[in-house]
Amino acid sequence: MPSVSGELRDAPYGNYICHTIQGGSWADRSPLHEAAFQGRLLSLKTLIAQGFNVNIITIDRVSALHEACLGGHVACAKVLLENGARVNAVTVDGITPLFNACCSGSAACVNMLLEYGARPELENHFASPIHEAVKRGHRECMEILLANNVDVDQEDPQLGTPLYVACMNQRRDCVKKLLELGASVDLGKRLDTPLHAAARKSSAEIVNLLTDYGASLQCRNSEFKCALDLAVPNSSVERALLLREGPPSLAQLCRLCIRKCLGRSCLFVVHKLYLPEQLENFLLFR
Fold first, then answer.
1. Number of other CB atoms surrounding residue 144 within 10 Å
2. Is 92 exposed, middle or buried (0-12, 13-18, 19+ CB in 10 A)?
3. Is the fold of 1-150 the same as that of 151-246?
4. pTM, entire model
5. Which run of H or E residues covers position 157?
């Protein structure tokens, strides 16, 4: 069976299924894998009752739990876990069931896996669940992981930070939520910042979001280019960046200073300052 990660990272879920089934390379899959993949709960229960090992794996170490989570079949995943499926099973490519749940966008599977002890943080040679959730725009999965103590600035050596991934894939909702939760606005992939990514992708809306949260226009990447150097001439991104050149307003400086002092708890403690609603909304970028 082909590894779960290769096609999933670079192609939609549907293309992955099409490629693998038509390729006829699932010869080592068990009936348990097939039932879990297709979400056939009754068949899955019958196979387990007949003595099938819930931890049977393919040559690439793909388990039935991997398949259930890839399909977002929470009832099947639950049955497998109740019968002893390894929640942190890892394929040869470092893919976990939690990664697959984030790929499919199943918040229910993500929650259940965490309840059964899934490790949400990035480990050496493991594919990162939060980066996959952000890449695909599954904000709810992302928020669940962050609520379970995943570092909002967790940096993947190949992908960068979640904020950088969100900007590269133009996931505005994820960008906004990551910034609200205190993501470091200038931390991306090595010297490339999220603002570089947004400029490169011609996303003026995300450029404005980043600069609202204090992104530096002066940061230069490994090619010694700033975000403005990457903007298409006469584009909305170039105009947005040009408008932000020069010193920020006193109001913006105050907002950023207060948020910096409050740190990542800002979103949750601002209301405890007993500020006028208008000022509270200003601090929270509402």
1. 23
2. middle
3. yes
4. 0.84
5. none
- What local confidence, expressed as pLDDT, does residue 26 receive? 53
| CA end-to-end span of the chain | 48
Q: What is the fold, at CATH topology level, of the domain defined by 151-246?
A: 1.25.40
Structure tokens at 202: 């011609």
Contact 74, 108 (CB under 8 A): yes
CATH code at 1-150? 1.25.40.20
187-197: per-residue pLDDT in tens? Answer: 999 999 999 99
In three-state secondary structure terms, 53 is coil
What is d(CA 159, CA 271) in angstroms, rounded to the nearest whole number?
A: 35
Q: Which fold would CATH assign to domain 249-286?
A: Elongin C; Chain C, domain 1 (1.10.750)
Across the range 100-108, mean pLDDT stands at 97
> Is 245's pLDDT higher than 90?
no
Kindly list the domain boundaries of the chain, sorted by start residue: 1-150, 151-246, 249-286
Contact 118, 87 (CB under 8 A): yes
